[in-house]
Design goal:
443 residues, alpha+beta, Beta-Lactamase, Helix Hairpins, Heat Shock Protein 90, 3 domains, five-stranded antiparallel sheet, five-stranded mixed sheet, 12 strands, rod-shaped, binds adenosine-5'-diphosphate, binds magnesium ion
């Protein structure tokens, strides 16, 4: 970035210098041209007034040679007759000179009284400026001088221009260096303290800082939740493994008599099942976390799936003499069938698990405002109001031992929430302690 700013700054300076130089040269040169022309004009008028010229003028063209006495400096003086013949020239022998009638300044002088023109000289990079003045007797007095061309002016100025360019470029690099250092300092400071960006030095950087801050917080939160999850999983796995290991040790030491054998085997199986449930739910959750996994979305009838789930869980409900009912209408949703099954199954399991003996579970499917809805209502123990939000957290359980006894893992509602979100739905849970719980899922 620093290098970029330096290069750009130098480029801008370079272009500015070039444009200014060329512009100034043009303006200066046109002023210079005008000056040369004005000088020539004045010289011509002064010449006419001189005694020497007046003498030659009155004595006749034949005596033009007397003009030799005119001191001229680098001014070339030419006197031309009405027919274009050169009567006198202080620079060249007139016998070798051609008729001047076709010269533009002479023609112009004959027509309008005065004329001027500029012609390229034989000398390199020089121009000859001419001024012709028509005199009263019909002859023309022409004065001319050589002056530098614009390229000549530019070439002469080149060392100065190069000098200015070099000095400016050095200045630009220095200023650019200082400027970028000043500019970059807050950015570098920010990069050093990413987790505590504070209020940045530049207002423009605030959204950037906010974004970094929130991303940083998200990353930390995600890392923390992963850590917590791993710790929780390990902890949850430990209990059944310890139990299995304990029972195995009893058998190993011949401490289980015949009548207890079945009980011990049941305990081992129960704990192994528990392990399996935890592992299965963990896998399910981690799969749901991966959004890139391809899911087979199709039109699924929510009501049909709900009925299947109710039928599957009837034996479980019967054990607690719970009446489980399913009512409503067909409602098609675009969904992953297996996931929807998993979701309803989890909700029904909870409704049975946290119900009272001889309780009731009602499942209803309906369409409200063209949104398919599923409600699962039970007459169970209910959830305390202050814990309603937390039940969706991984491993969160209101009553740990009750959940464990009944085979819960604490991951069910977390899985349900994930599935609902994956289908762009929303889930609401309402509950009254001792009366029951109602879960509403809207697609
Ligand atoms: N229908 C319900 N009635 C009462 N409590 C419930 C109900 N559903 C869930 N809960 C509470 O929310 C907790 C989390 O539920 P969940 O994530 O399914 O885990 P699990 O059922 O495996 O314990 C449960 O342990 C229970 O305390
Ligand atoms: Mg559950």
């Amino acid at each position: 970035m620093k290098q970029k700013i330096n290069i750009r700054l130098s480029l801008i300076a370079l272009v500015a210098i070039l444009i200014t130089t060329i512009g100034i040269t043009f303006v200066y040169y046109s002023m210079f041209q005008r000056q040369v022309r004005d000088d020539l004009k004045q010289n011509a008028r002064l010449l006419v007034e001189t005694d020497v010229f007046q003498k030659a003028y009155t004595e006749g063209k034949e005596n033009a040679d007397s003009l030799e006495h005119l001191s001229s400096g680098n001014l070339r003086i030419t006197w031309i007759d009405e027919d274009g013949t050169v009567l006198f020239d202080n620079d060249t022998d007139i016998t070798g000179l051609s008729n001047h009638i076709d010269r533009p300044e002479i023609q112009e002088a004959f027509e309008t009284g005065e004329g001027d023109s500029i012609r390229r000289s034989d000398t390199m990079n020089m121009n000859t400026f001419y001024y012709a003045l028509l005199l009263e007797n019909g002859t023309v007095l022409r004065v001319s001088t050589q002056a530098r061309t614009i390229t000549n002016v530019l070439i002469t100025a080149l060392p100065v221009i190069i000098g200015i360019v070099v000095v400016t470029l050095i200045g630009c690099v220095l200023i650019g260096h200082l400027l970028t250092r000043q500019l970059m300092k807050p950015l570098e400071l920010m990069a050093e303290n990413l987790d505590d960006v504070g209020t940045p030095a530049y207002k423009e950087l605030e959204p950037f800082a906010d974004k970094i801050r929130s991303q940083h917080e998200n990353i930390l939160a995600a890392a923390k939740s992963r850590q917590d999850f791993t710790a929780n999983v390990s902890h949850e796995l430990k209990t059944p493994i310890t139990a299995i290991s304990g029972y195995a040790e009893l058998i190993e030491n011949n401490m289980v008599d015949e009548e207890n054998q079945v009980h011990v085997a049941q305990q081992i199986r129960h704990n192994a099942d528990r392990l399996l449930s935890i592992v299965n739910d963990t896998i399910q959750l981690s799969e749901l976390d991966h959004f890139e996994i391809k899911r087979s979305f199709e039109t699924v009838d929510l009501f049909a799936v709900a009925k299947e789930c109710v039928n599957d869980l009837k034996p479980q409900a019967d054990k607690k003499q719970i009446i489980i009912k399913c009512s409503g209408t067909s409602a098609g949703i675009n969904a992953d069938r297996a996931l929807i099954r998993e979701m309803i199954d989890n909700l029904l399991q909870n409704a049975i698990r946290y119900n009272k003996e001889k309780g009731k579970v009602e499942v209803e499917v309906s369409i409200k405002n063209s949104h398919p809805e599923l409600t699962v209502e039970d007459t169970g123990i209910g959830i305390p109001a202050d814990q309603l939000d937390r039940v969706f957290e991984r491993f969160y359980r209101v009553d740990k031992s009750r959940s464990r006894e009944t085979g819960g893992t604490g991951l069910g509602l977390a899985i349900v929430k994930h599935i609902v979100e994956l289908h762009s739905g929303e889930i609401k849970i309402t509950s009254t302690i001792g009366e029951g719980t109602r879960v509403l899922v809207r697609f």
